[in-house]
UniProtKB/TrEMBL annotation:
<dbReference type="InterPro" id="IPR047594">
    <property type="entry name" value="MoaC_bact/euk"/>
</dbReference>
<dbReference type="Pfam" id="PF01967">
    <property type="entry name" value="MoaC"/>
</dbReference>
<feature type="domain" description="Molybdopterin cofactor biosynthesis C (MoaC)">
    <location>
        <begin position="13"/>
        <end position="147"/>
    </location>
</feature>
<comment type="similarity">
    <text>Belongs to the MoaC family.</text>
</comment>
<feature type="binding site">
    <location>
        <begin position="73"/>
        <end position="75"/>
    </location>
    <ligand>
        <name>substrate</name>
    </ligand>
</feature>
<dbReference type="GO" id="GO:0061799">
    <property type="term" value="F:cyclic pyranopterin monophosphate synthase activity"/>
</dbReference>
<feature type="active site">
    <location>
        <position position="125"/>
    </location>
</feature>
<comment type="function">
    <text>Catalyzes the conversion of (8S)-3',8-cyclo-7,8-dihydroguanosine 5'-triphosphate to cyclic pyranopterin monophosphate (cPMP).</text>
</comment>
<dbReference type="GO" id="GO:0006777">
    <property type="term" value="P:Mo-molybdopterin cofactor biosynthetic process"/>
</dbReference>
<dbReference type="InterPro" id="IPR002820">
    <property type="entry name" value="Mopterin_CF_biosynth-C_dom"/>
</dbReference>
<comment type="pathway">
    <text>Cofactor biosynthesis; molybdopterin biosynthesis.</text>
</comment>
<dbReference type="InterPro" id="IPR050105">
    <property type="entry name" value="MoCo_biosynth_MoaA/MoaC"/>
</dbReference>
<protein>
    <recommendedName>
        <fullName>Cyclic pyranopterin monophosphate synthase</fullName>
        <ecNumber>4.6.1.17</ecNumber>
    </recommendedName>
</protein>
<feature type="binding site">
    <location>
        <begin position="110"/>
        <end position="111"/>
    </location>
    <ligand>
        <name>substrate</name>
    </ligand>
</feature>
<dbReference type="InterPro" id="IPR036522">
    <property type="entry name" value="MoaC_sf"/>
</dbReference>
<comment type="subunit">
    <text>Homohexamer; trimer of dimers.</text>
</comment>
<keyword id="KW-0501">Molybdenum cofactor biosynthesis</keyword>
Amino acid sequence: MLTHLDSQGRANMVDVTDKQVTFREAVAEAQVRMLPETLQMIQQGGHPKGDVFAVARIAGIQAAKKTHELIPLCHPLLLTGVKVELTACEPDSVHIQATCKLSGQTGVEMEALTAASVAALTIYDMCKAVDRGMSIEAVRLLEKKGGKSGHFKVEHDA
């Protein structure tokens, strides 16, 4: 059932007023593929704009907090934790994992996906002058805990 549609098929924000407050957590990932030379530049701190991972991490955290401003039917949430981890994967990619947590009435999957996506876009933005052929791949939800639908976890690599 598509919960963002009313009985007439019109888009609406889901009413969570009567939902129980529970602990909720979501983990999402993204991958940025690039030239090996680009990854080396990032790792060696040779980027003229500064620390690519630090900027991407901050961008991901900020994006999670602003998800409701980007995705029209998302609720504004009081996140209690956002973690964005970036890992260089030799020879040619960066793996991003974003985790969002709260105690609330609705899930944080969109916030985790947004954090991972915007961190990846930030890497692209910072490095596009040296590598326009980068690609952002495998943006997906890895795990979700809490709420009525329970626990979801990717069982295998796609």
